[in-house]
Here is the input.
Amino acid sequence: MQPLTSPRAAARRGLLSIALAAVLWGTIGVTTKLLYELAATNPLSIGFFRLGLAAPLVTAAAWAHLGRHTFAIAPRDLLRVMLVGAMLAFYQVCYFAAIAQTGVILATLVTLCTAPVLVGVIGIALTRERLPRTTLLALGSALSGTALLMVGPPEAAPHSTATVAGVVLALGSATGYAVMAVLSRALAARYHPLQVTGLGFVAGAALLLPLALAGGLVIRYPPQGWLLLVGLGLIPTAAGHLLFQSGMRTTPATAASILTLMEPLTATILAWILFGERLGPGGLPGALLLLGALAVLYRGAA
Here is the structure.
């Protein structure tokens, strides 16, 4: 029985690791909105500090665990690692900008609603990944649940300029996330997750620094603001991505993307509690469908 139960246990651990990462990521939106309220900051500044604070910690952990092998990336994979960093920078800056335009709930839901579809399309095009029946069922449940969660309150203005701009930014964020997820799956099969995450953060921060300086890097924050920035870099960013990369070693990219729909559920609850952002009438059915998608994936992990 051991040869059969071991792969099943590894697969389920991978699913649970990605689900926990998604819950941590669900705190990013409310943290970003709090930063906007505490200081006159911008998406590039928040994005740079998020990756810049996480990169040394993850790189040091990689060095402690792997030594000189931390930087042992084959030339054929170096561009992929750099692209992971670029997509990390791109998708989070678009997401932070979308939050400023539409609020936490809508920005998060639009990003995570379209990401699984994009991951599936990109995965099939680049890796010829086939979608099993359970994944298709989970995908349909997850997308239906997210669509229900997006039903806004009656007084919302869905066609305002700010909302349209926010949705476009959220779609850009979803595209960046989808590319990163597919690339991470390919790299996780050959490298330790600390390598991919640490070097990706370094590359993303290096890319964002000149952009943030050109756009006006904000360095003046109250103590509460710096506390939020440090927490943003260390907890949902460093710890969250380490969990995600670890889980990706045994989880297909499309299934992982569906699991990350725990993020909008977490973000929705936090935004409602902290900022009074409200769900529409489809909130409860949508949340149940999201949880149903996770149950389908968990059952089919073997």
Summary: Residues 14-299 form one domain.
